[in-house]
Design brief:
The structure is a single chain. It contains 10 helices and 11 strands. By secondary structure, the chain is an alpha/beta fold. Strands 3, 4, 5, 6, 9, 10 and 11 form a 7-stranded mixed β-sheet that branches. Strands 1-2 form a two-stranded antiparallel sheet. Strands 7-8 form a two-stranded parallel ribbon. α5 links the parallel β3 and β4. The two termini are about 40 Å apart.
């Protein structure tokens, strides 16, 4: 059983396509078909059902999938042990939330590039739904979300960090002097908020609606970091993840408002698809996020 044939099997299992696997690996389609036929002959059982243009794992193929991953991972570990100086190469495609990108990514990417200078990084900012769609179609390798806890059978959770979201105001704002803020005061204030569809914006809208209230911002913007700067300049109130505003709060450039009737906790989570072969470049990124 050749490792390149096992690698081809894993790509087909991930892409659900012989032709796409051939293009990605640089083989002819006939070579891919020949490798799988040889593997099925060695194992004595069909690994894929081919109905029209649809390719799906058989029960035997699903069973072999775990062993195939272990085979390649073991081979990679052996190669790394024998050649410790060898650089991780290839590409890494990550979809992530804007707020995660602006806050955590600069330092994370600096450490990643120091570890893997030969890896090409391709980044996409998107909503959670868009990220999961990219992951399910193998257009990205990892997604780094800020949302309610996501529990889906197709996802493998690699990191999970709770992140509070808070109301912020300029320090000179009248509400900044109050110990607690009644929820019904908020709709009367000028707000700058992230766009609808962003996880914590939706959580805020749901919390307000549960009390028969609504906040109508005079400005909506996708960039959480820019919203933070605008609140610092006295342009209104906002509702942002605490990690975005932590330094500004500590330095007195912003004030945190205590609104007991609206407490929102998001989760910063890193995922990959359960059918995805975890590459060395993915492993390094996962390790760095877990350390972070």
């Amino acid at each position: 059983m050749e490792l390149r044939t096992v690698n081809t099997f894993l790509h087909i299992a991930e892409l659900h396509s012989f032709s796409r696997t051939a293009r990605q690996l640089g083989y002819s389609q006939s070579a891919v078909s020949s490798q799988i036929a040889q593997l099925e002959a060695e194992l004595g059982t069909p690994l894929f059902d081919r109905v029209g243009k649809t390719v799906r794992l058989t029960d035997a193929g699903q069973t072999f999938l775990g062993y195939a991953r272990t085979l390649l991972e073991t081979a990679q570990q052996a190669q790394a042990a024998l050649q410790p100086a060898q650089q991780v190469r290839g590409s890494l495609r990550i979809a992530l939330a804007d707020s995660v990108c602006s806050t955590f990514l600069p330092g994370l990417l600096q450490r990643y590039h120091a570890r893997c200078p030969q890896v090409e990084l391709v980044l996409h900012t998107a909503s959670t739904d868009e990220m999961l769609q990219l992951l399910s179609t193998n257009q990205v390798d990892l997604v780094y979300t800020l949302d309610q806890p996501l529990l889906q059978p197709a996802l493998v959770l690699a990191a999970d960090v709770p992140e509070p979201v808070c109301f912020i105001a300029p320090p000179q704002h009248p509400l900044a002097q109050e110990n607690t803020i009644p929820l019904d005061l908020l709709p009367r204030q000028e707000f700058l908020l992230t766009e609808r569809g962003m996880s914590y914006r939706d959580a805020l809208d749901q919390c307000m609606a549960a009390h028969g209230l609504a906040i109508h911002p005079y400005l909506e913007l996708g960039s959480a970091a820019l919203l933070c700067q605008m609140v610092e300049q006295g342009m209104g109130l906002s509702f942002l993840p605490e990690y975005i505003v932590r330094s500004a709060l500590a330095e007195g450039r912003l004030a945190r408002l205590n609104v007991p009737d609206c407490t929102v906790m998001m989760h910063r989570q890193l995922f990959y698809h359960r059918d995805k072969w975890v590459t060395p470049q993915m492993n390094v990124f996962i390790e760095l996020v877990q350390q972070q």
